[in-house]
């Protein structure tokens, strides 16, 4: 894709926004330009600019709702997360009504144990202080608990909000007064404020992500990127006659969707010093394929018993209402993309390949953690090593797939699947 954009002209003209350019294979076997990230903040700004055409986001006059521009932006983020999770408008209305009551849509970073838009308490499993003051994480955590309530879609906003936030207190009247404003905000911003979601063929998803990162790093205009992906879709049509307008619309949707995902991932890297840049250029081999597959799932909710070779799925027990991954579901999914079956739980995965010393770890190795590190029968968690002392994993209920240091006292060992 990127080769068709004339990327060489951008490099030759000194137009590279994020330098360190390399050449990798393209979809059709041709050359394509990528980069090693040198300025994550600059890269994120360029990627986020691809999420919609300049005139696509409908402006909401703050005075109309008695809210500031920042409060409107927080409301929009809550709505966007609902659409990313495939939830109905009702979920966004409940979340907005709750956030208006809890924080007046202000991302509160100080308090007495409660923080962020929803005044979530780290001590109650909502996440760290840094996470609950990230509007995207806070909204995702709220929705995760919301959908675990049986029949939530048919409950009054006041009742279900109280159950999510204060299950032991009767605060229904407090939430009730905010429902009209929440509904009005969702009605106004649902279409224009929420990014369109486009289905992307899993076989080309990684290539599209790399292309968008490379295009952003090279300063390629959005229209040119969309035109390139449109041509690529046509070339994959196997001679099928495709409607030009519909094809371009799908390409536009793909850019909007994928850039939105990358924008959030890069924000997490900037906000959390333990994240750093996810490795873009990995050594060749099945381990690298597994790592790329797992990194594409960052932000997907944790679901007990969820996930497998087919991707995120509804789990069992406390994960029955959440579509996502548990720790072994994520690693099974990642290695299945590399063509290797490792089993669906930590037991079989511990025996799925060669055991390797901690000092010999390579990207893609399975890293295990146990209540008694000397006793494999007590293993309770598994992650995927990505390099530089970090792993990608699905930690626990209420969290999401994320990157974290693997320097833990309960480390039990590592396996290189074969």
Task: Please explain how this structure is put together.
The chain has 418 residues and is an alpha+beta fold. It has three domains: 2-52 and 198-271, no CATH class; 62-193; 286-417, endopeptidase fold (from Nostoc punctiforme). It has helices spanning 7-12, 40-48, 62-65, 69-84, 89-103, 129-132, 135-146, 157-165, 172-176, 179-193, 202-218, 222-235, 244-271, 286-295, 327-336, 346-350; strands at residues 21-25, 31-35, 313-314, 323-324, 353-356, 366-370, 379-387, 390-393, 402-405, 411-417. α2 packs antiparallel against α13 (244-271) and α4 (69-84) packs across α10. The longest helix has 28 residues, at 244-271. The protein is globular. The two termini are 33 Å apart. Residues 1-38, 192-198 and 273-281 have low confidence and may be disordered.
User: Order of strands side by side in the largest beta sheet?
Assistant: 5-10-6-7-8-9
Radius of gyration: 22 Å
Uncertain residue segments: 1-38, 192-198, 273-281
Main pleated sheet:
6 strands, antiparallel
Tally the helices: what do you get?
16
Number of strands: 10
Q: What is the global morphology?
A: globular
Mean pLDDT: 78
User: What structural class do helix, strand and pairing data support?
Assistant: alpha+beta
Tally of individual domains = 3
* Order of SSEs: HEEHHHHHHHHHHHHHEEHHEEEEEE
Helix content: 40-55%
The proportion of residues in beta strands is: 5-15%
Termini gap: 33 Å
